[in-house]
Amino acid sequence: MKLYEYEAKQIFDKFGLKIPKQLGVIEKLEEIEKMSLSFPLMVKAMVLIGGRGKAGGIKKPNSIDEAKEIIRKMLQSSIRGYPIEKILLEEAVDISNEIYLAVTTDPATFDIVVVASASGGIDIEEVAKTNPELIWKKTIFDNAKELEDTVAEEAVDFLSKNFSDKPEIKNQLKNAIKSLYSAFQNIEAKICEINPLILTSNNQIIAADAKIVLDDNSLYRQEPLLKSIGIDPQSKRHDVSEQTIFEAKAYKIGFPYLDLLENPENFVKEKDKLYVALVPGGAGYGIFSIDEVVNVGDRYFEGKVVPINFMDSGGGPSLSKVADMFHLLMDHPTTGLIITSRFGGISSCDIFIRGLIMALRDRHLQKRRMIPVFGRMVGTDLAAAREYLEKAKKETPDPLEDLHIVVGNQKIMADVIRDGIEYGFKIKKQQEIRG
Amino acid sequence: MSEMKKEKLEANQGLLDYLIKHVRPELAEKIDQSKSIETMIVGLGRQGTRHAQLMMEYGTNVTCGVAPGRSGTKVHETIPVYASAEEAVMNHPNIAVASIWRHYSTAKDATIEVIRSGVPIIVLISEFIPLKDVRDILVEARKHKTILFGGNTPGIIFPPEGIKIGMLPDIFQAQITDEGGIGPKGVTILSRSGAILYHMSDALASAGIAQNGVLGVGGDGAIGSRFVDLVSLVMNYENTDLVVVAGEIGGMQEELLAQDMIEHPKKYSKPLVALISGANAPEGKTMGHAGAVITPGQKYGTFNSKKELLEKAGAIVVNHQHDLIKAVKSKLNQTYFRVEDYYERMKKKWDAKSPEPTWGTLITKVLPNNLVIKGYSLQDIIAKKGLLETTYLLTKGEFPKNELLGLEKIAINAAKEEFLHLDKNPEESDVSKIIGTFLLLDKKLSNFANSEKDPSRVAAYSLGRVLRYLSIYFGNSQKLDNHNQDQLSFSDLIYLCLVGELPEDKMKIKLLEAIITACVDHGVTPPSTQATLILASTRANYEVAISAGIQAITDVHGGAGQKAAEFMLSVVKKSKETATDLQETTFELIKETIKAGKRIEGLGHRIHTQDPRRDVLWDFAKKAGYAKECVEVSRIISDSFYRVRGMNLPINVDGVIGAIIADMEIDPKLAKAVFVFGRTAGLTAHYYEEISTQPQMRRIAFDKAIYKGPAIREITE
Fold it and tell me: Contacts of residue A384 in chain B, CB cutoff 8 Å?
């Protein structure tokens, strides 16, 4: 879970790092009236995405009028898909030096890595690429609770080479590094980063920015921390950009779902393309099935096939959840074909087919939009599932007219996908002729 | 299609053994001798318990389980459970693989404990483990050179050896040799995701490509052994012809592997095919620069970064099932089995009805017309053994050797100890309700059961106490207290308490005990046993569970003896009054009873057409000289009933007991009392079996129990 800058700073403050005085976090322009502000002032857009400074999300107004204008504009805009809903107002600090400081996770070994550089600021990534010698790194192999003095001192020596050798600064730096590490371990973060950590002209070390990514898996035992920044410990913050209505719906029902199309509610379809929705099984095949649809489309259908969603429908969903998955995709205005795969390992083919048939029958009765379904099922309870499917097709042929499920291993999924897409184009053509 | 040979590869010839050998050669030597790889299950919740069963069905040797607080109990009735990994490994030093099924909040401690116990291969099924905990686990795993699959792995499976650890379904295909046996060769698959494995195996099998091992490395961001730790190791296994890795976007596992291949090409002697998912996934939005700063200049985590580097390292990268097949085929130029046979095998498998879930009891096997307790037929037990010996058998599995004296002492003392101040005949007339109530009120019994670990001793104490209650019920408690018990055996006491006197004829004592022994148990399905088991499943106190069971003994279940005795006595009486023979009188009275809309008690049985306890009790009564008129009625009652109703209803144990009690000229109420008394032993055995071998609050499918106790055997003196 990502934290907003003001939340991260409040946490760092608790661990002994100095932060600029926060004057308030506002969501409406009017709120500024009640505040006593002094200038220059920092106005910072609170969005859970990087690159804010370059996108105009950080401003330093010198008057109240200027501040109001900036805030008014900010609250109407968004940064890379994230609408600006909160703005942090804090005291500006003067800058003598910008330091980069981070405690994070090594993607190769998963150990803790402490990173420091005297070349902090918005171009740190560029620095890392062009002048890697300006970056100091230390891997902590034993997952120690606190950072050893010697390691912190090593970092301080590296940093002070570049700007200052004053003992009071070195001491502050050492404490800052140890505090950041301590915060990282105590709040069980994945990333704690300060960029820049500022050395002011009067020799203060202050965290001018702060980033924290918490480990979702440990949130359950971080109740005091979460409460201290006003987050309900039982609920996880939804921290991807804005949810589409379909994502919100799936989130509510309780299965992982992502739209692959921008603005899917009002998506304008290209006339000659087939839009394919997926109910693929577990998350791994969820990602892979998107590739399969694109590959089959590129190879046999001139690249005219577009997958519209990612879904994790694995892990043995209940009957009603299976039905909800299909309802969601058939209500999706872009869907032209649904491809599904049930490989019943832990989960049951029987529950899956019953849920799917239930959804189709309901929709037929309610005269809701019906979409052809192509797929395959194999695995646990297959015999019962096949029996149910055959019986259902006899009993209610109309709602199941466009349900095409291969039973067993005779065809691999790639071929089922190809058959489905071919059928999808055929139906599409017929509909176009009918007008 | 010719029938496949069902043989498996020996455990010491497969990939799993190769991996063990790599980490702990001394353990591999043991496996060479035993030809068996011992595994343990850590975490016996619903999932762990269920999959323990599935693993065993697949062929895995599950040696023991670990669950805190459950030391000394069993899982799946026979697998010992220990409180810690340390204790488990102390008892089973050859455990080579552990699977961990604990909840994420306790997974760390459990895993570290297993690592420290020295188990070389760990399959960490648990998902959502906090990252900080994962790091602690990794620090420990590195120290001990543990091969750690997961967290969040579906497990590992080795089709040629028929071993799986984890939850992978049985769909992966081993090599079939020209001779029709199982061969060790094939490709080895390593995958980050579980679901994708099915589709890979599916694709490969459709081209006749076997898998000699499928290793789920774990789907979490931070895991134990990574591709870079495992691929070169697996490639050095002689029977691995090619390695397939299934990677996906995110993380840098694939890049690390590629980097290592570029730097140490000699380590990678076999072809590598990588199936990477996520070419068309939307660009992830990341926060912070830390990732890029610690790996300057190195792009990682995207489809392209993985593909480019792996291709540079000489791997074939695919993103489509048909490309996977093509790539593997191009490198191998061979198949490992006939594809048609594979389809045939799978069709058979999918068409098969899934087996119904069963559970086991080791106490009593109920067969039509036969009852077997711990392998001994109940007829033999009644004829040759006493009640306390049978009680010991029920609770401990064997007849006592020198424990009998101790048990007898416990039982006698228990009968002697005062119970409340209620030592006079209570108002209530129903014996089940009285005994059930007394059990609940008996503080001494409760204390004894709480502090005593040995179920046979609890059973003996309990029998003594129930005897005490019965003496109160029959108004004999004063006689019990007045007697100089030092001279009396427990068998004597039983007679004294139930009948109120000691008979001249010692055979009477033996006969009564035989009747009681005939009632000790009837498996898990009688309502009284069901009631006790349900209470036991909630871990209710011993005496509470036994009380519930006793109170389920009514006229409908187990209590028909009294009514049967009364009926037979009325037959004998009328026969004398009317000077009609017993047969005719029986017929007449049955007719009358049926006409009045009443039941004839003591006839018919759910399972037995000839109650196995019938003949042995008749014989016993005859030998003791108490096979008189009522026993005679019990012999002819079935035929008379047929004459009235045209239905075959055999005499059951209640009927036989009723007849003998009537002929012994003791109170017919005793018929139900002896059933209650005897069944106390069986209920005790079931109570302890339930709490020590089954999970709490399980749903008990009583008719799905399977007897898993000793095979049928003879009593040797």
Answer: 353
Cβ neighbours of residue B384 under 8 Å, at least 6 residues apart? B715, B717
pLDDT digits (tens, 9 = 90+) for B608-655: 888 899 999 999 999 999 999 999 999 999 999 999 989 889 999 999
Domain locations in chain A as residue ranges? 21-91, 97-228, 245-434
State the Cα–Cα distance between residues B131 and A218, nearest whole angstrom.
7
Q: Are the beta carbons of B199 and A288 separated by less than 8 Å?
A: yes
For domain A21-91, the question of CATH label 3.30.1490.20 is answered with: yes
- For residue A248, CA distances in Å to A263, A293, A326 come to 13, 24, 15
Q: Using one digit for the tens of pLDDT, what is the confidence trace for A141-199?
A: 999 999 999 999 999 999 988 776 788 899 999 999 999 999 999 999 999 999 999 99
Mutate to test the interface with A, among B198, B324, B353 (most CBs of A within 10 A): B198
Are the Cβ atoms of B139 and A141 closer than 8 angstroms? yes
Q: Please say whether the beta carbons of B185 and B210 come within 8 A.
A: yes
Q: Would you call B352 and A241 a contact, using CB atoms and an 8 Å cutoff? A: no
Residue B701 C-alpha, separation from nearest chain A C-alpha, in angstroms: 20
Q: Does B355 touch chain A (CB under 8 A)?
A: no
Which residues on chain B are in Cβ contact (under 8 Å) with A263?
none
Name the token pair of A8: 């991260």
* Whether B383 contacts B624, CB under 8 Å: no
Please report the sign of the dihedral spanned by the C-alpha atoms of residue B323, residue B327, residue B333, residue B334.
negative
Domains of chain B: 37-151 (3.40.50.720), 153-280+299-355 (3.40.50.261)
Give the residue from B561, B717, B554, B549 showing the smallest Cα distance to B653: B561
**A141 to chain B: which residues are within 8 Å by CB?**
139
Cα distance between residue A263 and residue A261, in whole Å: 6
**A245-434 maps to which CATH number?**
3.40.50.261
Is B348 in the A-facing interface, judged by CB distances under 8 Å? Answer: no
**CATH superfamily name and code, A97-228:** ATP-grasp fold, B domain (3.30.470.20)
Q: Which residue type does B2 have? A: S
Compute CA distances A229 → A8, A197, A222, A232, B602, whole Å. Answer: 9, 22, 11, 9, 74
Write the residue in B132, B287, B352 that is nearest to A185 by C-beta. Answer: B132
Q: Inter-chain contact A104–B290, Cβ cutoff 8 Å?
A: yes
In terms of DSSP bridges, do strands B211-216 and B186-191 run parallel, antiparallel, or are they unpaired? Answer: parallel
CA distance B580 to B192: 87
**Residue B199 is a catalytic residue:** no
**B256 in reach of chain A (CB within 8 A):** yes
Q: How far apart are CA A215 and CA A311, in angstroms?
A: 23
Interface probe with B: pick from A146, A209, A222, A288, most Cβ of B within 10 Å: A288
Contact B171/A379, CB-based, under 8 Å?
yes
**How do B186-191 and B240-248 pair as beta strands?**
parallel
Confidence of residue A242 (pLDDT cuts 50, 70, 90): low
Q: A196 preceded by cis ω (within 30°)?
A: yes
Chain A nearest C-alpha distance from B187 (Å)? 19
Question: Phi/psi at B276 (nearest 5 deg)?
Answer: -110, 125
Q: How many CB atoms lie within 10 A of CB B477?
A: 22
pTM to 2 decimal places: 0.85
- CA dihedral of B439, B445, B451, B453, whole degrees rounded to 10: -70
Which one of A412, A415, A416, A418 makes the best mutation probe of the B interface by having the most chain B beta carbons within 10 Å? A412
Chain A residue numbers touching B323 (CB-CB < 8 A): 295
Half-sphere exposure of B218 (CA within 13 A, CB side): 27
